[in-house]
Specification:
Elements (H helix, E strand, L loop, with lengths): L3 H13 L14 H8 L4 E6 L6 H14 L4 E5 H5 L10 H20 L3 E5 L5 H10 L5 E7 L2 H7 L4 H6 L21 E4 L5 H11 L6
Parallel strand pairs: 1-3, 1-4, 2-3, 4-5
Length: about 210
Amino acid sequence: MIGGHDARFAETESIVTPRQEIVRQDLQVRREQRAAIKRQAPRVIWLTGLSGSGKSTIANALESRLHALGYHTYILDGDNIRHGLNRDLSFSDADRVENIRRVAEVAKLMADAGLIVIVSFISPFQADRDMARTLMENGEFVEVYVDTPLQECMRRDPKGLYRRALMGEIKQFTGISSAYEAPTKPDVHLKTTTGAPSDMAAEILQYIDVARS
């Protein structure tokens, strides 16, 4: 007889690895119809960069601009997601990979609903960002590199995390004791030391085309 803990583990395993009898259901309303009624083209705008680089600030500036223009949007923020959906994950490399896998799947569902999704995650590994791109329709995924030098991020240190990481209080901290793989060919490359967040948001808007005739 399987005990309570083992039973829950077995149930989780069946959810994580779909079996052959789990078949995708066809939906009567197509993703194109959902986007058309919103009069916009779905996008997943993926902001990646070090902690303190300005991702969240730029994401909010971008969403404010899009909202003012009448677009339907949502921000998936790394800190917010770790308070709920991903609260069970640590900062090990394996859990960082799972962190991005989950949020990429959520972003895909939101894009399928016709939304413009702004993802603000450190997402340190290129392979995970590439995986997220493959989930989306062609041209739908926009990788935005929020390029702020490590020393500038450490100077800003809005949450005091770099100070704690340097003191050894935080293990596996990206940029200090855990690697960050900067994009080599991002769709949009923002050098944040050369402009304000509103300028960065405008640069992203110049790149993307979300209008639907």
